[in-house]
Recover the amino acids of this structure.
């Protein structure tokens, strides 16, 4: 086992990483020694707190909400290919952060294979959670609650995290907060920027989602735009694979690096969906354009590592990478400009745009979007890269935000059987669609399993 020291994190705390075996990367963030306070709830109080019998997502506290400093939340994230856990205090102190990446598996098998991803999560989940508690110098006894991603994502993967959360919560009699993965990407910005008040606008860009969201208040979101086919992260990953890049660091980062060598204006890929005057996205067509460009240049594709390419081929590949990135991001810029105009008409008091999700860790994306945002008189809030890609901190923080409003589930029984049934939400919209924002180019992927988070919360408030 070897350890590496990193520069201090944006939270002005020291950060270190341990390489365990060949495929497990752990990142730890430590801050000041935690004050060991635990909120105690009697089992009697749980019984009458459920606000919705059909959905056991949230309960409501009858007593006043606890002080922020007293809350200590464990966050668990397993919705896709990273197993992550973190402990965060209610005042925003990050006490620990651990991520075990499946990048090796991804590079070997060319994408997330659900069964394999599930096995990889199962293999490390206990270790990751234990490590998060150890790094925070805490035990389950010190926690106020456990937050866990319950959707959207791959069912098999979500199940691993939720099972772990329930086991732990059962043993230590802790409430559970079920977290929406994309809400967590957005809300972690409020941990970074304490002035970030509702309402705000958010552009969330990841491997599975492209979302433009107007966040009115906690749990109340309006979806201005979404993707009608692929998300931008998927397009980065596919392009990187086709160009023979080393996927072990992730397709997006590898492509960002290669693009630095290329001429971004060398290929005129067309910008998606210009004829649709809305805020929706599409990346499937751009992927096809890239594939055709690669084929027409007869550049070696998949399974031909770029490290073996001759200089001319490498230059062509870099040109494709840079041109792809320019157009992929121009599409974001155009939709974002329109979303800002729409959002300011609906909520003129908006001052911030949050940029988050894995792709938001890209420097080119951040720079281009910051121009758009500043040109419109708004301020950009973009979490540091380690909080843009999937992480446990965002889940813990979102758990804290809801917990402080009394939205949580009672502790599961300590002796809950392994095969107990619980709800997962693999397809779960964050907000209701803005009527003006509905795309004429309808997606085939719109079948919804669950009502949106926003409508569930509004429903429970009305009840
Ligand atoms: O949010 P995230 O970590 O996981 C999902 O929820 O999907 O996002 C992962 C996506 C992947 O497609 C990955 O290639 C992309 O974010 N990504 C990047 C960069 N870092 C991660 N894309 C472009 N440039 C990057 N630097
Ligand atoms: Zn994500």
């Amino acid at each position: 086992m070897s350890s590496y020291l990193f520069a201090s994190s944006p939270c002005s705390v020291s950060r270190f990483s341990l390489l365990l075996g060949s495929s497990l990367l752990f990142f730890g963030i430590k801050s000041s020694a935690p004050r060991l306070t635990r909120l105690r709830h009697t089992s009697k109080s749980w019984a009458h707190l459920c606000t919705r019998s059909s959905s056991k997502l949230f309960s409501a506290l009858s007593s006043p909400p606890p002080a922020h400093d007293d809350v200590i939340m464990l966050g668990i994230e397993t919705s896709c290919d990273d197993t992550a856990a973190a402990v965060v205090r209610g005042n925003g102190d990050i006490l620990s952060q651990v991520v075990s990446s499946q990048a090796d598996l991804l590079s070997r098998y060319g994408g997330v294979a659900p069964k394999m991803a599930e096995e990889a999560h199962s293999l490390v989940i206990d270790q990751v959670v234990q490590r998060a508690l150890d790094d925070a110098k805490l035990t389950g006894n010190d926690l106020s609650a456990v937050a866990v991603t319950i959707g959207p994502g791959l069912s098999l993967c979500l199940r691993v995290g939720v099972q772990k959360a329930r086991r732990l919560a059962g043993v230590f009699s802790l409430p559970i907060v079920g977290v929406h993965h994309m809400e967590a990407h957005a809300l972690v910005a409020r941990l970074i920027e304490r002035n970030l008040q509702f309402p705000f606008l958010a552009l969330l860009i990841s491997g599975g989602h492209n979302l433009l969201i107007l966040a009115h208040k906690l749990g109340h979101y309006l979806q201005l735009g979404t993707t009608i086919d692929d998300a931008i992260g998927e397009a980065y990953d596919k392009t990187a694979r086709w160009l023979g890049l080393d996927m072990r660091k992730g397709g997006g980062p590898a492509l960002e690096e290669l693009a630095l060598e290329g001429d971004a204006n060398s290929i005129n890929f067309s910008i998606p969906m210009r004829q649709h005057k809305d805020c929706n996205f599409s990346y499937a067509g751009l992927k096809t354009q890239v594939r055709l460009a690669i084929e027409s240049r007869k550049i070696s594709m998949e399974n031909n590592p770029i490290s073996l390419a001759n200089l001319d081929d490498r230059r062509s590949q870099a040109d494709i990478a840079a041109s792809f990135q320019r157009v992929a991001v121009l599409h974001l810029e155009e939709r974002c400009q329109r979303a800002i105009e729409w959002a300011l008409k609906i909520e003129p008091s908006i001052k911030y745009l949050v940029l988050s999700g894995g792709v938001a860790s890209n420097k080119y994306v951040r720079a281009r979007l910051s121009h758009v945002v500043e040109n419109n008189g708004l301020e950009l809030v973009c979490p540091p890269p380690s909080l843009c890609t999937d992480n446990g901190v965002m889940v813990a923080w979102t758990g804290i935000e809801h917990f402080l409003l009394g939205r949580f589930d009672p502790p599961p029984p300590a002796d809950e059987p392994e095969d107990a049934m619980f709800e997962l939400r693999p397809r779960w919209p964050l907000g209701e669609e803005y009527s003006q924002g509905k795309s004429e180019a309808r997606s085939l992927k719109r079948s919804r399993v669950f009502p949106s988070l926003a409508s569930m919360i509004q429903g429970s408030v009305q009840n």
Notes: The first strand starts at residue 2 and ends at 6. Residues 1 and 20 are 6 Å apart (CA to CA). The first helix runs from residue 43 to 47.
